[in-house]
Amino acid sequence: MAEKTTISIIKCDVGSLAGHHVVPKPLLEIGEKRLKEAKKQGLINSYYVFNAGDDLELLMLHQEGEDNPEIHKLAWNIFQESAKKATNLKLYGAGQDILKTAFSGNIRGMGPGVAEMEIDERKSDPIVVFAADKTEPGAFNYPMFRIFADPANTAGLVIDPNMSGGFKFNVLDVIENKKVVVKCPEEMYELIALIGTPGRYVVSHVWRARDGLICAKTSTTRLSLIAGKYIGKDDPVSIVRAQHGLPALGEVLAPFMHSYFVEGWMRGSHWGPLMPVGLKNSKCTAFDGPPRMVALGFQVANGAIASDDDGKPMISDLFDDPAFNLARREAVDYAVTLRRMGEFEPARLSAEAMEYTTLDKVLERLKRRFTPA
Ligand code: F6R
Ligand code: MG
Ligand code: MG
């Protein structure tokens, strides 16, 4: 097939059962029903609806390209309908991420998070889609570095000549709205210098250096900057391509064998340990977390997710695996350790990061009581 294939993962917090912890079934069913219709009409070729904590996630494969108004409109309508249902059911935070009312042709900047990747299908194209809750796009910086730049993680960087040319990273400065391309291995130290500050610098794309093959995309929404006030963190999604001259599936997943710290968790105001989980545990409970991530593996075949004989897309729930038990255990250990600190840094985010939360409103009241010391 000559046509290009697009993988779109578009997500939105439309409302949750009992607080901000999980998307309930009636909302997932709206996604399921509407995407089934869109497939019948021929707009999309296949889909998978799931949740990352309180975020409704729509995975769609189609041939309409990135930033396609019809695809974005489809997602937007589903989020609107789900938010309405959530409101009727009096679910919590109904329509939380829907910041604008009228659709303007592209869902970016309207609240929902988006990662899209248009590809020329290789002979066989294994894909991993990641989705996290109670954290932000910078949460992918560390694993992206490990996967595409760290020879201690990705053996292929050392062993496979197809990878020895390295990878290029597009890094966004989300505060000043600027970008820079950094090439590894040559500029690895510079890359770390930037993306070690995940609240400001975010890896948005990764390409293979020798031929520009697109390998990874992440969502980069900043809700607070769009809305002008604190809404929550921008629970991120990412698409990563694997194998045959790219990191193997196992190299893509290896960074998650240990927990690591991300910004987010309760009230988007704390450092928290990331916990890789299977879909059945994709719910943020303890202190609204800990921040959780799911990973879905599939093959792209002729513009669709490769499906079984009944036409069902074959999806592997990659973190539903005892190989990640240690990371989960570490996440619980780190979580209780941090919680012992209460609202003292470093459990709570730095003062600069807290400016994007509701803490400022609290401090405002004290400001006029300060006198020169
Ligand atoms: C974080 C998040 C939750 C809420 C918290 C308070 O992204 O969604 O941790 O911030 O549950 O929520 P409200 O203010 O709605 O009671
Ligand atoms: Mg919520
Ligand atoms: Mg969320």
Structure description:
It is a single chain. The chain has helices spanning 25-41, 69-88, 141-149, 156-159, 188-195, 223-227, 249-253, 325-339, 351-354, 359-367; strands at residues 5-12, 46-52, 55-62, 113-119, 125-133, 167-173, 178-184, 201-208, 214-218, 237-241, 261-264, 270-273, 275-276, 292-301, 304-305, 316-317. Helix 3 (141-149) runs antiparallel to helix 5 (188-195). The longest helix has 20 residues, at 69-88. The model has no long low-confidence stretch (mean pLDDT 95). With 373 residues, it is of the alpha+beta class. The chain is built from ten helices and 16 strands. Strands 5, 6, 7, 8, 9, 10, 13, 14, 15 and 16 form a ten-stranded mixed sheet that branches. Residues 13, 16, 20, 54, 93, 96, 232 line the site of one magnesium ion.
Query: What is the CA-atom radius of gyration, in angstroms?
Result: 20 Å
Query: How many H/I helical runs?
Result: 10
Based on secondary structure, the structural category is alpha+beta
Q: Termini distance?
A: 73 Å
On the 0 to 100 scale, the average pLDDT is 95
